[in-house]
From TrEMBL:
This is FBD-associated F-box protein At1g05080. It comes from Camelina sativa. Pfam families: F-box, FBD, LRR_At5g56370. InterPro entries: F-box-like_dom_sf, F-box_AtFBL13-like, F-box_dom, FBD, FBL13/AtMIF1-like, LRR_FXL15/At3g58940/PEG3-like. Residues 22-75 form the F-box domain. The gene is LOC104753368. PROSITE patterns: FBOX. SMART domains: FBD, FBOX.
Length: 452
């Protein structure tokens, strides 16, 4: 059915004035026909070669190819069809002078022993001068080593490798055009391979890393002078115990502007210089060093998990540029550090608190002076997971009573009995608000009236 649809999409017949049927689309220039085929899945685009001699080689000029094993369905009573055979044959026939994008996702439907074929495909993509390469293997028992030619490709701009791949990097590495790298759950031969790989990417601007427990690395070092954005995720699997595992994340990237860190490994996190960060997401149960925390002083947008490891920043850092902030609170008495944070964030306009579950006690003591952000800047305030405990009530009352420029406050109440909810709403409605323009909104937890 899909094949027929592809054929009819690629060929149009019209009647001439004399009543004869004419195939006008086949007379279009090659580049326009290639543009039409780009709207089709790769397999359907290739199937147009049976239309006529005119169409036989058009698909071979496609600048984008996608081979996704999950697209091949299980037929009743038959073994799952694999994309392997189609990929192997069609890739060898491809003739485009430049391959803008190649996507290969191989799953368990492929033959077991295809290491040589995989290496051949990657090497051939280098010959085609690929710009963007996405390669995922999800079924091999032993990760494969990518060909050395990949590490000296002068046209590669965007690289994503995922799952059963071993980063075993020769020396030297030369990837002069590579700007974007995504490393999803791969395995590393050793720490030197990672360092050699990144050191050969002189134009690298964006690095995404998602690690797993068995990736063979203890220390993960990112030393990239040109790096602008780093996203790093290491969620330790199979355990509820978080403690220092003796490993580390080390960052040496002085031009870094955006940093998104999720690390629950218990390792240390070190920054060897002080980049000027504009945007940061810090969700960690690890141990950041002083430079790491100080690098947050320049952020404009901040998302932070307030834990025993990060609470020190509330006291020690002056967030002089901070405008928007989301605070996730864990199970400890966080209200006093939170007030210190407000004192140190004079430009803050948008504040969201997301309070996680827990019945731990909270205590609140008003500061000696009103935080400057409340007096001059705060416009939006939201509290998710509000429970109506004494400490929470006192903080909300304090913010509403002192935020002169507040336009909207949203209290998102944790699900509870209707009676308790009405009681909390009544209490908060009675709180005096210094800003005549402020609107107070209430909702259950699953409704969010606005977003940061």
């Amino acid at each position: 059915m899909a094949g027929n649809l592809a054929i009819h999409s690629a060929r149009a017949f019209v009647k001439s004035e004399k009543g004869r049927i004419e195939d006008r689309i086949s007379s279009l220039p090659d580049d326009l026909l290639v543009s039409i085929l780009l709207f089709l899945p790769t397999k359907e685009a290739v199937s147009t070669m049976i239309l006529s001699k005119r169409w036989r080689s058009i698909w071979t000029m496609l600048p984008e190819l996608e081979y996704i094993d999950s697209d091949y369905k299980q037929l009743p009573g038959k073994k799952k069809e694999s994309i392997w055979w189609f990929l192997d044959e069609s890739l060898q026939l491809h003739k485009a002078p430049l391959l803008q994008r190649l996507i290969i996702e191989l799953g368990p439907g492929c033959p077991v022993d295809v290491d040589a074929d995989i290496i051949k495909w990657i090497a051939y993509s280098d010959e085609l001068k690929v710009n963007q390469l996405y390669f995922k293997l999800s079924w091999l028992s032993v990760p494969i080593i990518l060909p050395e030619s990949l590490y000296v490709c002068d046209t590669l701009v965007d690289l994503t490798i995922s799952d059963k791949i071993l980063l075993d990097v020769p020396s030297p590495v030369c990837l002069p055009a590579l700007k974007y790298i995504c490393l999803h759950y791969i395995v590393y031969k050793d720490e030197d391979s990672l360092v050699r790989f990144l050191s050969g990417c002189h134009a690298l601007e964006y690095l995404y890393v998602e690690r797993h427990d068995n990736d063979a690395l203890k220390n993960f070092r990112v030393e990239v002078p040109s790096l602008k954005t780093l996203e790093y995720t290491y969620v330790k699997l199979g355990t509820n115990n978080v403690g220092n595992m003796g490993g580390s994340l080390v960052i040496d990237a002085e031009t870094l502007g955006e940093f998104y860190l999720t690390d629950y490994s218990g390792n240390s996190c070190l920054i060897e210089n002080k980049p000027r960060l504009d945007r940061a997401t810090i969700s960690v149960l690890c141990y950041p060093n002083d430079n790491f925390m100080k690098s947050l002083s320049s952020v404009i947008y901040l998302y932070i998990l307030l834990s025993t490891e990060t609470v020190v920043c509330c006291h020690a850092i002056n967030f002089s540029q901070l405008i928007e902030c989301t605070i996730i609170s864990l199970q400890f008495d966080w209200l006093q550090p939170f007030m210190c944070f407000l004192q140190n964030s004079p430009q803050l306009k948008v504040l969201l608190i997301d309070q996680l579950d827990g019945d731990f006690p909270l205590s609140f003591t008003p500061p000696s002076s009103v935080p400057g952000c409340l007096s001059t800047h705060l416009e939006m305030f939201e509290w998710k997971g509000y429970r109506g405990r004494n400490g929470e009530k006192e903080v909300v009352k304090y913010i509403l009573a002192n935020s002169k420029y507040l336009k909207r406050a949203a209290i998102i109440i944790k699900p509870c009995s209707l009676e308790n909810k009405k009681k909390m709403i009544k209490e908060l409605k009675s709180v005096s608000r210094v800003s005549p323009l402020s609107r107070l909104l209430f909702s259950p937890l699953n409704w969010i009236p606005w977003y940061i």
